[in-house]
Design goal:
With 107 residues, the chain is α+β, with helices and mostly antiparallel strands. It has a single domain, classed as Orthogonal Bundle (Arc Repressor Mutant, subunit A). It is built from 5 helices and 2 strands; from the N terminus they run ααααββα. The protein has a two-stranded antiparallel ribbon. Helix 2 packs across helix 4 and helix 3 crosses helix 4.
C-alpha cells in the first residue's frame, strides 16, 4: 500500500478534536514521516523502538506511532523480529528501515 489512509492523516471519526488535529498535521505529514525514516535509516540494523524514536526526535507518542505505521504500510520500515525493553520494563518491537533489514539479514 503506497497511500495509507488515502493520503490523509488518520483520525477518529467520532472525535472533532481528533479530526482537527489530523487536519492541522496534514501539511507536516511528509516532513514527519521523513524524520522518522531518516532516524531509522541512521540506526541501521540496530533499529529503534517507538519509545526510542519518540525520545530521539522529541516527538509525542500520538505523532510518532502513526507516522511509523504509515511508513510500515508504505513498506519502508518493518519489525526486525527483535524486542527491547522500554523505560517501563516492557518488551517493545524494534523497527528497522526495510532496506537495511533486508540487506543485513537476508539468508
Amino acid at each position: 500500500m503506497t497511500n495509507p489512509y488515502h493520503g490523509k492523516p488518520p483520525s477518529q471519526r467520532h472525535s472533532p478534536t481528533s479530526r482537527e488535529a489530523a487536519d492541522q498535521i496534514e501539511s507536516q505529514l511528509n516532513k514527519l514521516q521523513q524524520e522518522v525514516l531518516s532516524f531509522l535509516q541512521g540506526r541501521g540494523e540496530y533499529g529503534a523502538t517507538d519509545e526510542e524514536i519518540q525520545k530521539a526526535l522529541d516527538m509525542a507518542q500520538n505523532t510518532e506511532r502513526p507516522r511509523r505505521r504509515e511508513l510500515q504500510l508504505k513498506d519502508l520500515v518493518c519489525d526486525s523480529g527483535h524486542k527491547r525493553l522500554t523505560s517501563s520494563g516492557r518488551r517493545a518491537v524494534v523497527w528497522v528501515y526495510k532496506t537495511s533489514f533486508s540487506l543485513e539479514f537476508s539468508p
